[in-house]
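Bench notes, bay 3.
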Amino acid sequence: MPQKAPHTVHIHEGEATLSKRKGSPHWQLRYKANGKWARTTTKKEKLADAKREAMEIIVRARVLEKEGTLVISKRFKTVANLAIKRMNDEVEGGQGKVTYKRYIQAINGYLIPFLGAHNIDKIDYALLSRFGIWRREKMNEAVIAYNNANPKTPKSIKEPSQSVINTHNSALNRVFDEALMRGFMTKTQVPHLENRGITSERRPSFTANEYIKIYSNFDSWINKARKGNEFLVRNVLANYILILANTGMRAGTEAMNLKWQHIAIEKIKGHEVLSIYVSGKTGGRTIYAPASVAKYLNRIKVQYEDIAEVPFRVLLKKKLDKYVFRIDDKDATTKFGKIFARYLEGLKLLVDKETGKDRTLYSLRHFYATKMLIKGDVTVYQLAEHMGTSVAMIKAHYGHLDLRDIAKKFTGLWKIEDELGEKIDGDE
């Protein structure tokens, strides 16, 4: 029977061993976890210290094993599934983001199939370059199949858009963050992610005259509604449209998360402005809205019996934990989208003649951006900050922007009390 090496020590009733590798002063631990042998260093040179550290490692592993969170593999697939679990847990806890769904789809559909078998700390620029080529082919499988069958009349391969690559990069960073938290890699091992995708096509928008046509027909459209829920929905939707077009907030994600407690009237340098805190795709931020938005919000307020008689300013001071745009506290994104499409179709405005695409509630955000750049006296960098869009490179080259300093550019000079018909109570 072969003798064990003199530098190997059995511990934990023979279920684990300590040994020293040639050239290393530290004792290495070999133990079983999740039915597999795992290895790690104790980072201890003395045997007595190494035994104590080894027992702590084994005990921690047993606890994690019972919780179902023990990880002994650095494979990308293993870490990616942990990242997915963390995102799902955050969503269930009310802390998740809308974009998590797309990240998880990207991880399962693209990242794991290509990177799954690689160790997380061995993913480098060369491997990601090969992934980029594979991704393009996967996205163009139908085109490739057609070209193979029709070599004389091939179709052009499409490049992934910047939006798609941004989503994949963000999903990949979630996996790298998980690996960093678990000590599977260091910050210097995280590869730099690039985006060389094609620029997305311009979204459909509205001209100034088309926008006038939209709000000019609200009264007759609302009056034709059946009394009850349909009348309420059209009233709220009409003002929702006006608010989107005058703030640039995102339809759905940001608007449906908006509560009355997120809205305030501030005095900045002697000028009253309406501030709105929105949160969604890119986190939270404060935007400054024109005084007319106070009027639109007030018209929504009076649709609900429980707050109808409360003066607008008083309502804002109450910091009411109640959604502004939801119907019966339910997300109305889909309902609003469908009704808006039918409304536009009736006005013959559904299709944008320049892009040939159907307009949606999101088109109001593009309309706002165009309007502000043309008439709002704001720079593209200020606008990007205000709208919560791609500002990373802007900040890097042009410095941080304090929106309070340019609040008047977004709000205009109209007074809130003029729009509401309520007197200023003198509060700051």
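Next record in the batch:
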Amino acid sequence: MSNHTVSATFEFKDASSKDRFIEFCNSDNGLKVTRAWPGCESIECYEAQDTPLKVTIWQKWSNPQSHESYVKHRHDDGSFDFLGELIASPPDISPLRPVVFETDQQQIESVIRDMCHKDHTVGLKHMHKDCVFIRPTGNPLNNEGWQRMMNDEAVTVAASELMTINKLRISDNMAYVCYTSQAMFTYKGTVNDDVAVFTSVLEKVDGRWQVVFGQRSTGRSPAAAPPIFC
């Protein structure tokens, strides 16, 4: 799970209120408690250059649950009641996530390229924990089963690459992709050189596209007529 970043902005009533808050932060019950809280990775404090009474506390947590337990503690110990006496308006506490400066289509195309990588662990990071993959036999594999199969000593991948993306459609936080790849691999001593068509369904979870379903066609020889998509 990726870390959890939170921005908390407070605007104080006056300089005296801000000073009281600073005294609290420097006390034994202040930021010392925050930094020692399980899951707290870092905390930094800033003030606006044009509005010194506005203070932003930038926090990084290992996961949302750690931050939630910390906030509950501050409610229970009365810290938020104390803060309410000092600020001019309700605090703005916002969880943040990294921005990927790529279009959804570019992000999905990148995911598909990784899914076709020779090293299966490169694509694995894009697979949702509840992902289901259907093999040409019709038998399903979950995430754990996929890893177990690809880590089997009987499987050796010599090469794998994306050939074409045949169809890509995006609707809000869901997308589907049909693509063709070529892979050379050995399974139980038998060498295969296959061109196969895949279908993947992706969902955007916490701002990141993840594969939630996949299906592979039976492989064909590279010398055979390629599949044609209108």
